[in-house]
Structure formats: structure tokens, C-alpha cells
Amino acid sequence: MKPQKPWVPFLFVAPALTFFVFAVLVPMIATAGFSFTDWNGFGEFNFVGFANYIELASDNIFAKSFTNVFLYILATLVLEVLVGLFLAGLISVQRSGSLWFRVALFAPVMLPMVVVAVLWSFIYNPDFGLVNSVLSAAGLEDFTRIWLGDPDTALWAISLVSGWVFSGFFMVIFYSALQQVPTELSEAARIDGAGEWRIFWSVKIPFIRNAIEVGVLLCITGAFQGFDLFFVLTNGGPFNATEIPTTLLVRTVFRNADVGYGSAMAVVLTLVILIVGWMFLRIRKWNDQKELRT
Questions:
Q1: 67 near 242, Cβ under 8 Å?
Q2: pLDDT band for position 288 (cuts 50, 70, 90)
Q3: Which residues touch 217 (CB under 8 Å, ≥6 apart)?
Q4: Do residues 227 and 246 make contact, with C-beta atoms less than 8 angstroms apart?
Q5: Residue 92 has pLDDT above 90, yes or no
Q6: Does residue 214 contact residue 2 with C-beta atoms inside 8 Å?
Q7: Alpha-carbon gap, residue 28 to 24, rounded angstroms
Q8: By CB distance 3.0 to 4.6 Å, which of 88, 105, 180, 194 could disulfide with 175?
């Protein structure tokens, strides 16, 4: 059924479109414009051309922030997505008590990230923290560390916190997808002599591939957007060992009052995220075409 007036459907999308324009599109365009200036947020705009981008190309801390975030992505793909998939498979096999298990694992997702960061800062405390206390009680004093103050362990310590929070989130996504697997497939595999884990990896995993791909994409984009855990736990330290683009960007804009340079960082970060997203979609399309050919 067509509306009597062709412009009526546009009224329904106008509020969302207006919000998108003023909350997303306009700030993006303004940020791109600021990146060509040396504006400090208060004074006059001085056009500097590509000077900010040229400076970024030789900024070792900015380059290290991308190295850190890619390492963080690799760690969270294991600690969040893979662990979440394992937990979803465990719950789908073991029905008894699965409801309480799901609630307990999903609970950290509902906590504010600042609260999570403060909680784990006490757990990692080198003097009275739980981690070092357990290691000392077990006679493993040589393994005690200043976990958030050691450049060799700080990034992995934050990654572990992220895994503790979001593995339950991905568990719920994968568990919901597993509920859509036809029982006939599992029953046929059991008749052929397959065990529960064989059914999980060989029957259910291929069936929920789309959900896994979405989970991977959410994990990658979420890692690029990460800020609060890093800011509260280490604020980029020690010695830039946990510096990621978002923490460096915020420090540059709000502490150093260098809006132009920070805007250039934001533009580069946006382009990197778009390229990663495009590559992900291309790989997914290539896999789909490969399956059709076979």
C-alpha cells in the first residue's frame, strides 16, 4: 500500500536522519577540517595544511599505540571470542544449572567499566592484591609482579580484564545462535557415533559461522574504541606500554590542548577502522563465493 503523498515516508526517517547528521556527520566533517589547523580549542584557526599528518608519520608513540591495539585485538579475540564460544558450547552440552552459569558469566558486562577497572586495580595491586597474594601463598613469589607497572605485563593484564568482562557477552551471542541449530543434525551425528564435542566443532560451529563472524567484527571494532579500561588502570603507561590511539588522542586534545593534531589522529584512526572493516567484508565475501563454487 503506497502513501497518498510521496513525502510522508520521509517524515518517519527525518528524526533519525537529523540526529545522524548533527551528532555524527557534522562532527566528522568538523574534525577533518580541524586536522588541517593548529587550533588549540580556544584561539584562532591557523591553516597548516598537511603538517599534522606529516608529523604523525614520524610520531613513534602514535605508531606504538597502533601496535598495542593490534596486540590487544589478538589477545581479546582469544580471551573474549574464543573463550565465549567455548563457554557457549559447554552450556549447550551441560543443561543442568546453565541458567545460573549464564547469569554469573554475563554479570560483569552489566558493570560500569570504571567500576571494573577500579576493582581490578585492587586485584593487581602489588602490595595487597589478590593475584600476588595467591602466588605468594602458593610459594610462587618469583612470579609476583607489579602487573600494571611492568611494561612486559601491563597490556596483557588489561587484556585479561577485558576478557573477564566480555567473554560472557559473546557467550550469550553464541549460545543464542546454537539454539537455532536443528536438533536433527545433532541426532544424526550421534547416530553416526559422534560425541558431544565432535558434534559441537563439526556440526554446530559451521552452522553458526555468521554469528562467529559478527562476534569477531564486534571484538575488533570494540578494541579500537577501547578507552576506559586503559585510562583508569594505566593511562597509557608505563612508558607507553599500554598506549592506544584513543588514550593518546584524548590526552593530546584535552591535556595538551592540541585539537588540530588530535583531529588528525582521529581521522587516521577512522580510516584504519574503515579499512579493517572493508577487509573483513571482502574476506567474508570471498569465503561465501568459495563455498558456492564448492
A1: no
A2: confident
A3: 277, 280
A4: yes
A5: no
A6: no
A7: 6
A8: 88
- Read off the C-alpha cell for 15: 528524526
Q: How many CB atoms lie within 10 A of CB 21?
A: 11
Q: Which amino acid makes up residue 268?
A: V
Rounded CA gap, 29 and 45, in Å?
16
Is the dihedral angle over the CA atoms 13, 17, 20, 22 positive or is it negative?
A: negative
Q: How far apart are CA 77 and CA 229, in angstroms?
A: 17
Buried b (16+ CB within 10 A) or exposed e, 195-231: ebeebbeebbbeebeebbeebbebbbeebbebeebbb
Summarize pLDDT for 19-73 with one digit per residue, the tens.
Answer: 999 998 999 999 999 999 999 888 888 899 999 999 999 999 999 999 999 999 9
Burial of 65 (0-12, 13-18, 19+ CB in 10 A): buried
Query: Is residue 294 predicted with pLDDT exceeding 70?
Result: no
Distance, C-alpha 26 to centroid of its chain: 25
CA nearest 268: which of 20, 32, 25, 73? Answer: 32
Encoded amino acid at 35, one letter: S
pTM metric for this prediction = 0.90
CB atoms within 10 A of CB 177: 21
285 burial (CB, 10 Å; 0-12 / 13-18 / 19+) is: exposed
**In the chain, % of residues over pLDDT 90:** 61
Cα three-residue angle 21-25-28, rounded to 5 degrees: 155
